[in-house]
Amino acid sequence: MPGFFHRSGSAISDGARKRIAALKPYPTLDMWRNPVTRVFARRLQNEDARKLLDEIDFEYRITEETAGDVDGVYYETENSSNDAPIILYVHGGGFVAGGPSENAASILPTCFLSGCNGFGPDYSLLPEATYPTQIEEINAVYHALCVGHPGARIVLFGESTGAAIALSAMMQWRNEGAHLPVGAVFISPCVDGLGASDTQISLDGRDPVIRSSRGSYMRNLFRFYAPDTALDDPGVSPLYGEFEGLPPILTQAGSREVLLGDAARLTQAASRAGVDARLQVFDGMYHRFHAHWSLDEAREAHRDIAEFILSL
């Protein structure tokens, strides 16, 4: 008999049901802190992420490039158009793993469906660098894109912990009076270092990928990320920041992920501040299901993201 978190409703696709049963949880924070096990855990997680590129069924190209003295990659697909916006993709990975090449399966479908090109910075990971290094690097990339592509429409796209970095950076641009992206997309956003969302408790054990331990995992992870800053500081946890003046935001999450509460609270906070913010919840889906392009649910999610981007 399958474990509790492997059970699923009949409305989700057969492919999603099988995928949920096959997925394994991310490594524990103790594994990330230990320099010996971290090397192994990072390699394993990155290899699993790269394998998802095998599900991509369209032509694409990933080219190493640099923006603002930060290394990264440039994304192109067979549908790329110079008239479409440029996507600035901030990958997830718990601040400790992942990369713009390794996580490309999360962003390439949106580029393909929208005709956008994109740039993914290879920002510094833990513990090699801690907050605010990551935000400073995203700032440098964004300003370089603005200078290098004058008049271009830039869309910010943050995934998981990458959403915390991206949203904090965008709030900083707003505070500085800089030109803002035309819109932002956040998928499975992890934006509260306090781990205070109710779903950190109510959905713990339902997501096959992330374990919350009643929010303690997030608190310990964010302390690792920002050891000298309060966890509710908006630079670390942008959920506690000011949303006034931000561009339209689309947030997506799965109904079984512990970060669903973060997605809901982000959308509520933005809406109350007068931002055009919308939330889409995908039945039965788990953390970062967008990277699984062969699933019907992932294709629907990327189509909705592409429609949002092209409406900006």
Q: Short description, anyone?
A:
The protein has 312 residues and is of the alpha/beta class. Helix content is 36%, strand content 16%.
- Name of the CATH class: Alpha Beta
Shape descriptor? globular
Second CATH tier, the architecture: 3-Layer(aba) Sandwich
- Helix amount: 25-40%
Q: Topology of this protein?
A:
Elements: H1 14-22, H2 29-33, H3 35-51, E1 60-67, E2 70-77, E3 86-90, H4 108-114, E4 117-121, H5 133-148, E5 154-159, H6 161-176, E6 183-187, H7 199-202, H8 216-225, E7 249-254, H9 260-272, E8 277-282, H10 296-311
Parallel strand pairs: 3-4, 3-5, 5-6, 6-7, 7-8
Antiparallel strand pairs: 1-2, 2-4
Helix pairs in contact: 4-10, 5-6
Walkthrough of the structure:
The chain is of the alpha/beta class and 312 residues long. The protein has one domain (4-311): Rossmann fold (3-Layer(aba) Sandwich). 36% of the residues lie in helices and 16% in strands. It has helices at 14-22, 29-33, 35-51, 108-114, 133-148, 161-176, 199-202, 216-225, 260-272, 296-311; strands at residues 60-67, 70-77, 86-90, 117-121, 154-159, 183-187, 249-254, 277-282. The protein has an 8-stranded mixed β-sheet with strand order 1-2-4-3-5-6-7-8, sandwiched between helices. Strand 3, helix 4 (108-114) and strand 4 (117-121) form a beta-alpha-beta unit. It is globular, with a radius of gyration of 18 Å. The N and C termini lie far apart (47 Å).
